[in-house]
TrEMBL record:
Subunit structure: Homohexamer or homotetramer. Interacts with SRCIN1. Interacts with VAMP2; the interaction is inhibited by interaction of VAPM2 with SEPT8.
The protein's name: Synaptophysin
Species this chain originates from: Anguilla anguilla (European freshwater eel)
Presence of keyword Transit peptide: no
PROSITE patterns assigned: MARVEL
Task of the protein: Possibly involved in structural functions as organizing other membrane components or in targeting the vesicles to the plasma membrane. Involved in the regulation of short-term and long-term synaptic plasticity.
Topology term for the membrane: Multi-pass membrane protein
Length: 338
C-alpha cells in the first residue's frame, strides 16, 4: 500500500488534462470497445423446413456461429423430406480479417496503457531529449496505419459474414428446399449490432490515433525551429575597413582627459566623457551608442616612452541602440602617448 501511495504522490497526473494525455486515455478506452465487441461476439439464426410429409419437417433449425467466423466449420442438420437428416455447412472463412482487427485492438490497448504510465510517472525523462517522443511518434504512425487497414478489412469481412449468415441465403444450401412441394423460410435473423459497433469503434480509433499524431509530433521538437519568430535584422556599418584585425581606421590619435589616448571614430563620432570615469562613449553618425569599458594599464617601452595596453574591452549597447561592430577594439593595442 505504501508503494502505491508513493507512486501516486510522484505521478504527474496533470498530463492527463492536456491533449497528449487525454487523447491517450480515449485511445485506451476505444481500443477495449473495439476488440471486445468483435472478439466476444456469438450469434444465432433460425430456419424452418416444412416438407410435404409433415412428419419429416423441422420448423426450428438453429445455427450458431461466433468469433473468429470460420463459417465453413459451422454445420446444422436439415431434413431431406424423405425420412432422414442431412448435415449442411455454411460457406466462407472470415477469420483472417476478424483476428487481424482484434490483434490491432489488443496491441493498441497495451501500448496506450504503457504510454499513459510513462507520461504520468516518467514525463521528465520523456522530455529530456527527443528520443522518446520520436519513438512515440513512430509507434503512433504505425498504429494509425494499422487501424486504417484493419478497420477496412474488417468492414469488408463483416459484410461477407452478414451475407453468409443470412437465413434466406442459407436455405438455398438445403437440397430439400429446391423442391416445389417443400416450403423453407427464415424464422429469426442474427443480431449484428455488436459487430456493427466494433466496426464503428475501429474507425473511431483511426480518427483518434490520426488526430494524436500532431500532439505527439510537437513533442519531438522538429517543428520548434519553424515556429520561432525571425530575429530582428541589425544594421551593419558601411566602411569596408571594419573587421580587419589590428587595424583601426580613420582619424589621428587624440588624448582624452586623464591621459588616455583614443582614436575617434570617423563620420561624426565624438567623445562625451573621458578617462576620469573609466568610460568612453562613442556616438556614430547612425545614432547608436557604444559604451566601452577597457581595462587599461600603462607600461614603459625600452625607449622610455609610455605605452597603453588594452585588454579585452567590454562592449554593450546603450538604451534603445543598435550594437555596431568597431574594429578599433583590438585585444592588445599599444599606443604611444602624445
Amino acid at each position: 500500500m505504501e508503494t502505491v501511495n508513493q507512486l501516486v504522490a510522484t505521478g504527474q497526473f496533470r498530463i492527463l488534462k492536456v491533449p497528449l494525455g487525454f487523447i491517450k486515455i480515449l485511445e485506451w478506452i476505444f481500443a477495449i470497445f473495439a476488440f471486445a465487441t468483435c472478439g466476444s461476439y456469438s450469434g444465432m439464426f433460425k430456419m424452418s423446413v416444412e416438407c410435404k410429409n409433415r412428419s419429416d419437417s423441422n420448423l426450428n433449425i438453429e445455427v450458431e456461429f461466433q468469433y473468429p467466423f470460420r463459417l465453413h466449420q459451422v454445420y446444422f442438420d436439415a431434413p431431406t423430406c424423405t425420412g432422414g437428416q442431412e448435415r449442411q455447412f455454411l460457406v466462407g472463412d472470415y477469420s483472417s480479417s476478424a483476428e487481424f482487427f482484434v490483434t490491432i485492438g489488443v496491441f493498441s490497448f497495451l501500448y496506450s496503457m504503457a504510454a499513459l504510465a510513462f507520461y504520468v510517472f516518467a514525463f521528465e525523462k520523456y522530455r529530456e531529449n527527443n528520443k522518446a517522443p520520436l519513438i512515440d511518434f513512430g509507434v503512433t504512425c504505425f498504429f494509425t496505419f494499422m487501424w486504417l487497414v484493419s478497420s477496412a478489412a474488417w468492414a469488408k469481412g463483416l459484410s461477407d459474414v452478414k451475407t453468409a449468415t443470412d437465413p434466406e441465403r442459407v436455405v438455398t444450401l438445403i437440397p430439400a428446399c429446391g423442391k416445389v412441394e417443400n416450403q423453407c423460410r427464415e424464422v429469426h435473423d442474427p443480431v449484428m449490432s455488436g459487430l456493427n459497433t466494433s466496426a464503428v469503434f475501429g474507425y473511431l480509433n483511426l480518427i483518434l490515433w490520426g488526430g494524436n499524431l500532431w500532439f505527439v509530433f510537437k513533442e519531438t521538437g522538429i517543428v520548434a525551429p519553424f515556429m520561432r519568430a525571425p530575429p530582428a535584422q541589425e544594421k551593419q556599418p558601411a566602411p569596408e575597413s571594419f573587421g580587419q584585425p589590428g587595424v583601426c581606421p580613420g582619424g589621428p590619435l587624440r588624448q582624452l582627459p586623464g591621459g588616455l589616448p583614443a582614436r575617434l571614430q570617423p563620420a561624426g563620432g565624438r567623445v562625451q566623457s573621458g578617462w576620469g570615469i573609466r568610460t568612453r562613449r562613442i556616438c556614430p553618425a547612425g545614432g547608436a551608442n557604444l559604451l566601452l569599458k577597457p581595462d587599461v594599464s600603462q607600461t614603459a617601452s625600452p625607449g622610455g616612452e609610455r605605452q597603453w595596453n588594452w585588454a579585452e574591452p567590454c562592449l554593450r549597447p546603450s538604451h534603445n541602440s543598435t550594437l555596431l561592430p568597431v574594429s578599433c577594439l583590438c585585444r592588445k593595442l599599444l599606443m604611444s602617448a602624445m
